[in-house]
Amino acid sequence: MPSKKRSDNKKGKQSNFAKLSIFQPNKYKFKKSCPLSVKGAPVVDYKNIRLLRKYMSENGKILPSRITNVCQKKQRELSLSIKRARNLGLI
Amino acid sequence: MNLYEHTIVARQDTSPSQIKQLTEKYSKIVEKNDGEIVKTEEWGLLNLSYIIKKNRKGSFIHFKIKGPGKIIDELEKNESIDKNLLRYMTVKVKKFDLEANYFSKKEEYEKKDYKKN
């Protein structure tokens, strides 16, 4: 998953942007906003393993925010709660 | 008064009756030190992602505690000696979310995910 995301993002930024016309809806551009600070986003918590798994690589490393588009504040929360879950042996 | 979330991981070969004893033992300690247990959750036997003291699985018990900080000192003092436990962790929180049950609903979550795929 993560490796695919990265390549998609990089390609998407250049190619999609050129193709965009003014009349097209904005959502096809590229994801700019942080997925965790939108309204109705899930709460970052060490108990919510399902959420934390999304922001980790297959080897259990924390993904950098430049790939996942998470804002700085949420990334700090993420890394803290991932480390808590690791300590309990959940991840 | 502070709010704490306290999690204990017990060995895989503890019987259900032993787990009950553990929860009673630690809830008594909390009550002795003028604390109050808001909620206890049993997450059950979960797979550990890595082996801890030759255990592949652990049974998780989760407390939500309201009270002074002395409780935590007392709890952790007792837990560090306890041979039935693998890990313990306390987190100080500002608010409890009593609605979210990440572990009991786990199967339902998985089903929803499969449907989407």
Tell me, rounded to a whole number, the average pLDDT of chain A.
76
Element string of chain A (H = helix, E = strand): HHHH
Structural class of chain B: alpha+beta
Total helical elements of chain B: 3
Most residues in contact, chain pair and counts = A-B, 15 and 19 residues
Residue windows where pLDDT falls under 50 for at least 5 positions of chain B: none
Q: Estimate the mean pLDDT confidence of chain B.
A: 86
Q: Quaternary status of these chains?
A: heterodimer
Quick one: how many beta strands of chain A? Answer: 0
Sketch the major β-sheet of chain B.
4 strands, antiparallel
CA(first)-CA(last) distance of chain B? 46 Å
- Could you name the CATH class of chain B? Alpha Beta
Question: Any idea what the shape of chain A is?
Answer: globular
Distance between the termini of chain A: 17 Å
Query: Based on CA inertia axes, which overall geometry of chain B fits?
Result: globular
CATH architecture of chain B: 2-Layer Sandwich
Tally of alpha and pi helices of chain A:
4
The percent of residues in helical segments of chain B reads: 25-40%
Would you mind describing this structure in some detail?
The complex is a heterodimer of chains A (91) and B (117). Chain A has helices at residues 2-19, 49-54, 65-68, 72-88. Chain A is mainly alpha-helical and 91 residues long. The longest helix of chain A has 18 residues, at 2-19. The radius of gyration of chain A is 15 Å and the shape is globular. With 117 residues, chain B is an alpha+beta fold. Chain B has a single domain (2-111), classed as 2-Layer Sandwich (Alpha-Beta Plaits), CATH 3.30.70.60. Chain B is built from three helices and four strands; from the N terminus they run E-H-E-E-H-E-H. Chain B has helices at 16-32, 70-81, 106-116; strands at residues 2-10, 36-52, 55-67, 85-93. In chain B, strands 2-3-1-4 form a four-stranded antiparallel beta sheet, covered by helices on one side. The A-B interface holds A 43, 45-50, 60, 84, 86-91 and B 7, 9, 46, 48-50, 52, 58, 60, 62, 86-87, 89, 91, 97, 100, 102-103, 109.
